[in-house]
Design brief:
alpha+beta; about 550 residues; 15 helices; seven-stranded mixed sheet; eight-stranded mixed sheet
């Protein structure tokens, strides 16, 4: 019996199914947890719920994969046919100016920045393959199932989730084909929703899991897949750049990864702690492709896919407690990205393994629904914690002192951490990314060049290359706490930055006879969560649309 029973007068009766472990999200963390549970005991019942139309549809990552997590989970993955076939052969770092570049010697880079032994992959395809392995072990994997609510137990624990609610009218009332969804109940519930998950946010707040930690920090990662001239392609090459076009406007940088079939991943990350509300992360990405070094690489090629996703960047000092009554936060739901390496998939996999082992141990001793303290300990004291702790000062140094100083100080700190100590201790982040946004009157507008349709593209054209689709008759999944705030406060104070920070053109300020109006084109949403993070008034709340809606990434 759960405390949802007392609310039946305002919500429909739902059928319930019980499992040993319910996992939200078929990403690397959730699928690793599912596989490890079945390895430990084939009789454990496990369900994985994925909001994308198929596994991998909502997965967007760089991605250069450190295989340490997969090595532990499936040591013979090479013989099992994993879609991990492009080893890194060439590692390059550049500092960009507007018209030139300077390559940084690999020898000065801390050892942890070396990509030797890593692989260029599509994490969407890796997750599709992992889902097949999970199902072979008896895991039930259900794509197209958005988890819209938490089921709270009578004792206050997380007892399950509501999944598969369909057919609401735009006003939120049940439509003619309404399906109320089901309650999926578990002895433990693992949340592997990725960055800024809607259920994870609730759990972190309800159980004060972030108490005593620094605020979480984020970046916005945008990515295109390009098919390029075979003469310019170098399979296995990894390129990272810093500097132009962001320079002093914001932190961030780029990646260019040469995979197989003459394709390259071209990506750009903008740290969301920038101050100028006139900055447009998407346009910075498009401008980057016109740098001579990048333009020459892409000349004669074609873009075949686009997507965007927020990245957790707070690291060690922002990591919340990862265990709560009834479950655990996995991977990026907690924030396990190593920022200078731009890698988090290995830690996501390790977190899934740790959570599975903790839950197995608990259930074997007859426990259920309690706090998996051993999981939190494994995260903080094991390989994940050690990985994050070594680089913990890079992000705050960058935020405080800018690129040049952070390169020197951050590099020095990573070198000393390699030796087991840090002269800087653990630096704090200070403000949230929303609080970092400054009033428009303190900044000048930024003039961006128009896209040329060859190297650079407008937002809506690029969104069409993400496969994004939302059923328009459903309620808008982008909620405003107060509908008056965008025009009444954000527009006069911040020039309403939502119309600029969104990489999909979801938000507009439209001039009408009665004055400006804030318009939400939720159909364009690529589920990056930037609005939930960067809105200076914290007035926008990202929630899940009905299952299967959103982007449909093929090979991201």
């Amino acid at each position: 019996m759960t405390d949802t029973a007392s609310q039946t007068e305002t919500r429909p009766e739902r059928e319930a199914m019980e499992y040993d472990v319910v996992i939200v999200g078929a990403g690397p963390a959730g699928l690793s947890a599912a596989i490890r549970l079945k390895q430990l005991d084939p009789e454990i019942s496990v369900v994985v719920l994925e909001k994308g139309s198929e596994v991998g549809a909502h997965i967007l990552s760089g991605a250069v994969l450190d295989p340490c997590g997969l090595d532990r989970l499936l040591p013979n993955w090479r013989e099992m046919g994993a879609p991990i076939t492009v080893p890194v052969r060439d590692d390059r770092f550049y500092m960009l100016g507007e018209s030139g570049s300077m390559r940084l010697p690999n020898a000065i880079m801390p050892p942890l920045m070396n990509n030797h032994g890593n692989y260029i992959v599509s994490m969407g395809n890796v997750c599709r393959w992992m889902a097949e392995k999970a199902e072979e072990l008896g895991v039930e994997v259900f794509p197209g199932m958005s988890c819209s609510e938490i089921v709270w137990g009578e004792d206050g624990r997380v007892a399950g989730v509501v999944a598969g609610e369909f057919g609401k009218n735009p006003d939120g009332t049940p439509g003619p084909g309404y399906e109320p969804g089901m309650e999926l109940l578990g002895k433990y519930v693992f949340l592997g929703e990725g960055v800024r998950g809607s259920l994870s946010k609730q759990v972190i707040e309800r159980f004060a899991l972030g108490e005593g930690r620094e605020p979480q920090k984020y970046g916005l990662g945008m990515k295109e897949i390009w098919e390029i001239d075979p003469a310019k392609h170098s399979e296995g090459r990894v390129v990272h750049t810093m500097g132009w076009p962001l320079e002093k406007n914001a932190g961030g940088g780029s990646f260019i990864y040469h995979l197989d079939n003459n394709q390259v991943y071209v990506g750009f990350v903008v740290h969301l702690g920038y101050a100028n509300p006139y900055l447009r992360p998407y346009q910075e990405f498009q401008r980057f492709k016109h740098h001579p070094m990048v333009a020459e690489l892409l000349k004669g090629g074609k873009r075949v896919a686009y997507g965007a996703r927020a990245i957790t960047e707070g690291g060690w000092q922002s990591l919340p407690k990862t265990a709560f009554p009834g479950g655990a936060l996995l991977g990026c739901s907690a924030g396990m990205v190593n920022v200078p390496r731009i890698k988090g998939n290995h830690n996501a996999m390790l977190s899934g393994i740790h959570a599975a082992e903790a839950a197995y141990e608990a259930m074997s001793s007859g426990r259920a629904g309690d706090v998996l303290e051993s999981y939190d300990t494994a995260v903080r004291e094991g390989a994940i914690g050690k990985d994050l702790k070594k680089v913990r000062n890079v992000k705050p140094l960058w935020s405080r002192y800018g690129l040049t100083a952070s390169l020197a100080l951050g590099g020095f700190d990573m070198w000393t951490n390699t030796l087991g100590f840090s002269l800087l201790g653990t630096l704090g982040h200070g403000k949230t990314d929303a609080e970092a946004t400054e009033p428009a009157k303190d900044h000048a507008e930024i003039a961006y060049p128009k896209p040329d349709g060859v190297l650079s593209f407008d937002r809506l054209t690029n969104v069409s290359f993400s496969g994004t689709n939302h059923e328009e008759s459903q309620p808008c999944h982008l909620k405003l706490k107060d509908p008056k705030v965008p025009i009444g406060h954000n527009l006069p104070v911040y020039a309403e930055p939502a119309q600029r920070y969104c990489p999909a053109g979801v938000y507009e300020v439209v001039e009408k006879e009665g004055g400006p109006e804030f318009v939400i084109n939720f159909q364009n949403c690529v589920h990056c969560k930037t609005c939930d993070i960067k809105d200076p008034s914290q007035n926008i709340v990202w929630t899940v649309p009905q299952g299967g809606d959103g982007p449909n990434y093929p090979n991201m």
